[in-house]
Specification:
mainly alpha, Amino acid/polyamine transporter I
Length: about 450
Amino acid sequence: MLSQQAGDSGRRASLHGNWSSRMAFILAVTGSAVGLGNIWKFPYIAGANGGGAFVIVYLFCVFLIGMPVMMSEILIGRRGRRNPIATMALLGEEEGSSRQWQWVGVLGVLGGILILSYYSVIAGWTLAYVERSITGQFTGASAAEIGALFAEFTGDWKQVALAHTVFMALATLVVARGVERGLEQAVRFMVPALLVLMLALLGYAISTGSFGRGVAFLIEPNFAALTWDGVLVAMGQAFFTLSIGMGAVMAYGAYLPEETSIMHASAAVVIADTGIAVLAGMVIFPIVFANGLDPASGPGLVFETLPLAFGQMSGGVVFATIFFILLVFAAWTSSLGLMEPAVAWLIEHRNRTRRQAAVMVGMLIWIIGFGTVLSFNELEGFRFLRGTIYDNVDYLTSNVMLPLGGVFISIFAAWVMCRNSTADELGGAGNAYRAWRFLARFVAPIAILFVFFQAVGVI
């Protein structure tokens, strides 16, 4: 059951209740972290940057950069027990600094809203592709026909808008039900289901005859194909894949019971998130190689390359359907974490019920999302700064807002919060704590800023 009481230590209680168990929290954060970035993006950027060489760099970055920032965000969330904006303001005062740290929370909440505004549109594509898989539209189709199918769908704003609307309705429905009845019940079903679907596809990948080649491509390092830009891509992917810097992890951390180890929970999430990304590569690359396709075919790998492969294989209708349902679940669980910070803020500061807050946030995101909907059709020719409306929102969030949020979170946890506060949340002052403090103080902020300055063209 949800606990509305403070723990034995007498620290403040969450206004929204707690996760019922450590496993519920791990599933929730894993669900938020595991999304299209793991299953759609990771395989194609690994394919373009040396396979195993990229994976090695990525793993180092996940544990040396991603995990310390995740731990920082969770401990801040649990310490404050409020929405990210209120938490940063409250702790800023308590730690002898300033309420102006609330702007880091604002950055995260706005980042989550903007990210979900375009993420929902891409997730809507996966919903549409489930229908196309079931009806066998990929069966026997040529590359040109698959490409035309994708172009026809994205070029019709009404179809894209409908898919975007359905997806946002699904996300809003779950968030409106609350922490235990909505978020927790959803992730308890969808995260294990996601893993089962992945394993079913892995079984097929093993049977293709190209499984060994696919795994070798993923594991054997080709450092000749790994450029410095590839290293930066690995650093960026390691940071963004864990959903840090956008308020979701902080909001979920606010519901974490005091007796749960932040270090152990963070490690479990990082391992699960990384494992699913690698598993996605083990599924996709054998299918790609078995059909003579290019593993470095870029963003079209999922929506154009793989449907071509599914269309040629025995049982392709079944496996294509499973694959796109998998993508829907991955996107759905991520969307919940992106909505939650704004919903919690409305509940706490505007006295809205959870249902009202969820509908308001969902409607706002849905409206903003039309900028992305139209970027692929009616407003495709309207370009400014970085390109289309979608290009600009994607650039602003991924390359500016999230890195800055991650840096400020690390600085606040490791430099502004006193040692007693952070040691209290992380369970002592042993070697593991000292390692976190060093990584969060120096390694993570410097590395993230390096990626940030490279992304904005300063270096």
